[in-house]
């Protein structure tokens, strides 16, 4: 329940835009592990990571100052597909950071990477990495082309960088990638 409340606050009372923040700049969300995040094995439940990702994506949009422009258009984000790989566990009371960044887009979706890390005495330790295919819908339920969303948030049309090979392969495997014209 804690992460649901955090997401509601991040979405309906977003943090202030970061001056000069641009589409390819990373957005960092700092959090702490609460008792409600834990499963029976006393580490963060896998579903909680995905809820944290929701919060991180809302903060990413807030950092860009995007909520007003998206609301004016009647567009809102949804997850089309996601995958996550866990490397380390997070346990009660630990602080961690979630870094969200855009990898690129095609006609259908925007691809994001969300990386979890926690500070240690030797530097940041990688905890998990999620790849998300995000789509935007209009209030009427129609899909909004990803380049239109990027242009709105960037202030001008922008060319997508090449997606990493692993993300391209994943997007094809889960059938979210742009389909070739026939």
Task: Briefly say what this structure is.
The protein is α+β, with helices and mostly antiparallel strands and 182 residues long. It is built from five helices and six strands, in the order αβααβββββαα.
Keywords for this entry:
182 residues; Thiol Ester Dehydrase, Chain A; 5 helices; alpha+beta; globular
CATH superfamily caption: Hotdog Thioesterase
Q: Provide the CATH architecture.
A: Roll
Radius of gyration: 17 Å
Strand content: 25-35%
Helices and strands, in N-to-C order? HEHHEEEEEHH
Mean pLDDT: 94
Structural class: alpha+beta
Structure explained in plain terms:
This protein has helices spanning 2-12, 46-64, 67-73, 146-154, 165-173; strands at residues 27-32, 75-86, 95-105, 110-120, 123-138, 143-144. A hairpin with a 2-residue loop joins strand 4 (110-120) and strand 5. The relative contact order is 0.17. It has a single domain (2-173), classed as Thiol Ester Dehydrase, Chain A, CATH 3.10.129.10. It is of the alpha+beta class.
Write the layout of secondary structure elements.
Elements lengths: L1 H11 L14 E6 L13 H19 L2 H7 L1 E12 L8 E11 L4 E11 L2 E16 L4 E2 L1 H9 L10 H9 L9
Antiparallel strand pairs: 1-3, 2-5, 3-4, 4-5, 5-6
Helix pairs in contact: 1-2
């Amino acid at each position: 329940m804690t992460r649901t409340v955090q997401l509601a606050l991040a979405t309906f009372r977003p943090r202030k835009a970061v001056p000069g923040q641009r589409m390819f700049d990373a957005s960092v969300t700092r959090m702490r592990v609460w008792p409600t995040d834990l499963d029976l094995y006393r580490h963060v439940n896998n579903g909680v990571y995905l809820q944290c990702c929701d919060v991180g994506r809302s903060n990413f949009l807030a950092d860009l100052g995007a909520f007003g422009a998206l609301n004016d258009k009647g567009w809102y984000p949804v997850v089309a597909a996601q995958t996550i790989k866990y490397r380390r566990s997070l346990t009660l009371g630990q602080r961690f950071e979630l870094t969200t960044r855009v990898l690129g887009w095609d006609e259908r979706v925007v691809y994001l990477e969300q990386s979890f890390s926690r500070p240690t005495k030797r530097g940041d330790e990688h905890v998990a990495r999620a790849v998300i295919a995000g789509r935007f819908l209009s209030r009427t339920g129609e899909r909004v082309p990803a380049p239109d969303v990027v242009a709105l948030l960037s202030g001008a049309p922008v060319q997508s960088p090449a997606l990493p090979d692993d993300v391209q392969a994943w997007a094809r495997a889960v059938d979210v990638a742009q389909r070739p014209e026939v």
